[in-house]
Every structure is written in structure tokens, then in C-alpha cells.
Amino acid sequence: MARRLPPLNSLKAFEAVARKLSFTLAANELNVTQAAVSHQVKSLEQYLQLSLFIRQPRKLQLTKEGKKLLLELSQCFDQMEASILHLLPQQQRQSIKVRMGSAFASKWMSPRLPEFSQQHPDIELLFNYSQSIADFKDTDIDLCITFGSGNWPAVIAYPLLKLDFFPVCSPDFIDNYGPIKTPAQLHNLPLLHDLNYYCWSRWLTQVGATGVDPERGSILDDSNVLMQAAIDGQGIAMGSNALIYDHLASGQLVSLFDDVFHSDWAYYLLIAKNKHISPSLATFRDWVLNYPEPDRVKN
Question: How many Cα atoms sit within 13 Å of 269 on the Cβ side?
Fold first, then answer.
């Protein structure tokens, strides 16, 4: 008996759009045009005879049915990928153990991983999520991506990504608190901080907003939680385009001002100096370092 399924391409297009809440970002991931993705999603909605998205001028949201389908499709695609990997001969699959922080993992690495998996199905990536730098002597971590100054002993530090910071908030926050035209208006608004007050302090100093206390507001020591708090309208956070581009593209967050603080620190890819570089490790290292990125750190 034939399976009653819509075309696979329409399911792939929906899953990508639903995961990113952006037709543009989904099209970039699938390497097709935005029009093609939109057509595939509409054809799926016609096939199902229901709406999967709530389309609004500034943001895209999933309907109840869309959320349910995304959850089930994601599980199916994950199982399909796992099955394909297990069918490969064991000697053809090579594992690489990678450590990185959760914010970089979810906002930079995860959207790009399907491309790497398609290009190199024989390489398994095993991830360990931590903000701390891997102690290559006492762990079996092969590669670490971390944020810092670039000066660490006994490692080769490859510059990867610099960050620029600027205030962001949700459109609903602006609707609730009124238009925010100048930095001086921030003095009585809730500020949100990541780990410490450094970014807010540097940005406020740069724009000359001396009347705003950079240490007022809540600290949330997880960048993903921080951005979600801003999306939920809890306050104004310092965001970096490289890590919140999807929220900006979908309209969940908006930038308040044109002024940008460029951090002296950056993301680096670290490998122990005495590490044997296997072909699979070299492949993954080079893929990360050579991925097109407008904010790539220059040597």
C-alpha cells in the first residue's frame, strides 16, 4: 500500500522555516531561493488543508498544528540521519570530540551542521557544552571553541569570530515602554546582563550616556536565556549580530541604536599544540575556519 505522504521537499522546507522562523534563513540553509521555500510550504499547507504559520509583518509564528508537525518531523529527520550513519561501515566513520559554549553551539554551529553532515557523512561529531576551556591534558576533547583574548598556553588558537554588541529588545517592549530615541532614555528602563556589566558599561561610555547606571538590572549567565528574556519583553540586552541574526531577521528582536561596541575579545578555535591532527579533525577544523562569515577575525 502506497504511503500517503506529501513531497519530501515540502517537509524539508517546512522543517527549516519552522526551526528558524524565517523563510530567508531557511532558504540559505537549503541552498534554494526564498520563493522556492515559500512555494514548498504553501503546497504543504494546501496538501494538509490547514495553516502551519501565523504570518505577521514583523514576525513569523507557528500555529498549534505547525508546532506539533515540527516536533514530529524533527524527530523523524533525526532518526533518519542516525539510521544512515549506522549503516555506514564502522571503519568509515570517525569521531571528533568538540567542546563549546551553548550560545555558540545553538546560534552559530547548529544552523550550519546539516551542511557539514551532508558533505562528510563519515565523520561523527560528539559535542560537550561548557563555557570553560578544555584541559587537553586531562580530557579526550579534540577541539575547543571558546570566547576570550586569544592568549592561552600550550594550544594553537585559530581566530574565528569577532563580536559587536548593541542594545536589543522585543517590539512588544517598545510598544509597552514607548519610543526609545536616545541612550539617555535607558536610565529608567530594565537592563539585562550576561555574566557581568562589562558590555553595557563599555557601550554606555562609548555613546556618552553618563546618566545611565550600567549595573542596574538582572544578570543571566546563559546567553540563550538572556536573549529569550529580551524576546519575552523582560528588558533590553546587549546582543551581537553574529549570534542573534535569526532573532533580528524574524523580527523577534530589534536593534535600538546604530552605535556598536566592538569587543577586543573574540571566538577562537583551540587545538592542543601536541595534538595529532587526523584527517577527520583537519577536515572539521578547516570547514569551521573557512566558513564564509562577515565578522571573521583577521590574523
Answer: 21
Q: Are 148 and 263 in contact (CB under 8 A)?
A: no
pTM: 0.64
pLDDT, averaged in runs of 10, over the chain (299 residues): 84 92 87 91 94 88 92 86 67 79 89 90 88 78 91 92 94 94 95 90 94 92 90 96 90 95 92 90 94 56
Q: Write out the residue range of the structural domain in which residue 198 sits.
A: 163-263
Q: Which residues pair with 272 in a beta bridge?
A: 155
Evaluate whether 237 touches 229 at the Cβ level (below 8 Å). yes
Domain boundary (51, 86, 121) is at 86
Q: Which residues contact 297 (CB under 8 A, 6 or more apart)?
A: 159, 160, 161, 162, 266, 267
CATH code, domain with 211: 3.40.190.10
Identify whether the C-beta of residue 192 lies closer than 8 Å to the C-beta of residue 218. Answer: yes
